[in-house]
Amino acid sequence: MKIRTKMYVAISIATTVLAALLIASGLYFFGRYSRATEREHGLMAAELVRTELLMHLMAGTFDEGDLLPELQVVIPALQSVRISRTEAVVQQFGGAGDLPATEAEREVLSTREPTDMMIDDGHAVYYRYVAPYIAESAPGHNCLGCHNVPVGTPLGAVVLELDLTRQRTAAVNYTSAIVGLMLLFAFPMAYVLHRLFLPIVDATDDLHDVVSKAEKGDFSGRLEHRGSDEIGRISEQTNRLMATLEESFGTIVKDVEMLSGHYHVSNDRNQLTHTVATVRSMAEAVRFRQTIESDRDPEEIYQRLRRVLEQTFHLERFALYEVDPERDNMRVVFSEGLPDGTTLWCRDDILIDAAACRVRRTVQPVNSLFEPDICAAFCGEPVAPDLDLSHICLPLLLGGRVGGVLQIVYTADEAASINAKLHTIKSYIEEAAPVIESKRLTQILRESTLKDALTGLYNRRFLDQFLDRIISAAERREESIALVMCDLDSFKLLNDSHGHQAGDLALREAVRVIGASVRHSDYVIRMGGDEFLAILVDSTPDKAVEAAERIRTSMAANRFEVDSRTRTLTLSLGVSVYPVDSDDFEQCVRAADIALYAAKAAGCNRVVRFTREMLERSMESGDDLCQSPPS
User: Fold this and answer.
1) Fewer CB near the terminus (10 Å): N or C of the chain?
2) Residue 368 in contact with residue 378, Cβ under 8 Å?
């Protein structure tokens, strides 16, 4: 109910209640006064009847019919008089017809107390008063002079009836006059109350309109100034508040739009709610950035981003691709929502050639909802033919280049929800990008200290730093580790004869052959110069010798060109196994080195398995034992 309606209802109720109270109280007190007056009349009439009766009896001229006219002279409202006698009087004087005729008379004679009642027969209103006559011996009222009864004996009762019809008519007229006066009073009172409350009601209505606008982000509403009382001061303060909000909030909206990527808020949207939601999403994105800054590497950040997409944004189908700027290809970091048996929402071409991805090529977001078939690499229909799928691809910019692509795949029913979340998702991507770039650079810097610049292999520093992890993992799985020490035969002669460029080429060829001959889980380390160490995890002595032989034969069969001539190089290899040959890893490395020199001493281009007897014939480090020039 509106306050204006409440005001009118309150005025009506107040006027009605006041009038009812005045009327009810007037009638109540008028009734009490009337009844008290008639009771006094009854007492007076009873005494008059008693006096008249005594006088007539003493004169011997008693006639009950003469009492009424005589009493009506004194009491005009007296309608009838009846005198009844008790058994004692009847026995003494006779006249049985004068015995009490009603229950009221018998009750009065029994209790010796007067009683009264109102009688309304629909046409007239009567007041009946019944009073007892009691035998007395007081002077002037000595009943014992005539009645042969003890003192206090009831002698009879007098019943008087007074006509109150005229009084009732007067009461009705009085009540009608009061109602009329109240009606006349109600209108000016309602007018006065209306004038008193109207400014409050109008101010409340205006305040409601102003607040309603403010809820929609419109702070231009103002209250009309109404006097200098509290309402006027409230109006002034409210107007100042709205002016401050209008000025300040306009600046806030512009700043938030700028911080959130110049996102325009149209006039038909609630700017207050939208800005609060935008600030909240920006704060959550900043918290996300603060969290991932403590992550160890990009992979950990990627997995955290995956959980955010699933749990915060409730996406069902999405993928993240990482771009390798050196090889210009892409790899799938994660993908969700794909049918069984598929791994990509796009063609496999992007994994080989990153330029096949439109976002990678144009450095611009892609949304197929507005332009179907915008990217030829997307395979939504072949992958899920039963769904009409669209996709949004967002670039992850690292160092000014596309370092990754976030792909969101959705149906037409999900389009509105996805587009509503898109701005916040972009905020997360923008917050994550510099952290991922920093982690990548740190990773590259770290790897540069752990890898050989020429060959790309791990160096001895890597072995020193990660050896404990490799050993702990093997011991936890109760596996042995094979060590294969490899050394190029006649490398020094090649280097001296054809220069360092040819030597570098030979080293890279050896690295390629060794890497292709071992598993991805194995480690290849450049120990220095032309010496390499292959660490074969979970390998037995026999398997280690097989792997070393595979490396040797592959190297011997390899051909490469130096100064327009095709050349070959061979490898000598020594094999040891941890903890078979020693429970000290460094001793096992030393054992593999001893086996390597045994292979060179035996004529090069061969594999030698370490034995205990070799410790007695160990050779000191020096020039290659195979000094014949390469073929």
Assistant:
1) N
2) yes
Q: Which residue has the tokens 């103002």?
A: 222
For the chain, what percentages of helix, strand and coil (3-state, to nearest 5) are there? 55, 20, 25
* Distance (Å, whole) CA 128 – CA 159: 7
User: Nearest Cα to 62, choosing from 52, 74, 48, 70?
Assistant: 52
Annotated active-site residue 496? The verdict is no
Q: Which two tokens stand for residue 623?
A: 């020039």
Phi, psi of 36 (to 5 degrees): -65, -40
Give φ, ψ of 487 to 5 degrees. -145, 130
In this prediction the pTM is 0.49
- Could you give all domains of the chain from N- to C-terminal order, each with its CATH number? 3-169 (3.30.450), 295-446 (3.30.450.40), 460-615 (3.30.70.270)
Q: Which residues contact 570 (CB under 8 A, 6 or more apart)?
A: 488, 489, 490, 552, 555, 556, 604, 605
H or E segment to which residue 190 belongs: helix 165-215
Q: How long, in residues, is the chain? A: 631
How far is the C-alpha of 527 from the C-alpha of 487, rounded, in Å?
A: 10
Summarised one tens digit per residue, pLDDT across range 116-139 is 887 877 778 877 888 887 877 766
CB 567 within 8 A of CB 559: yes
Which of these is catalytic: 452, 487, 522, 530? Answer: 530
Question: Averaging pLDDT over each range in 138-147, 218-227, 589-598, which range is the top one?
Answer: 589-598
With 0-12 / 13-18 / 19 or more C-beta atoms within 10 angstroms meaning exposed / middle / buried, residue 226 is middle
Rounded distance, CA 179 to CA 169, Å?
A: 15
Instruction: With residue 270 as reference, give the H or E element that holds it.
Output: none
Q: Is the previous residue joined to 579 through a cis bond, with omega within 30 degrees of 0? A: yes
Per-residue pLDDT tens over the stretch 281-301: 778 888 999 999 999 889 999
DSSP track, 428-442: HHHHHHHHHHHHHHH
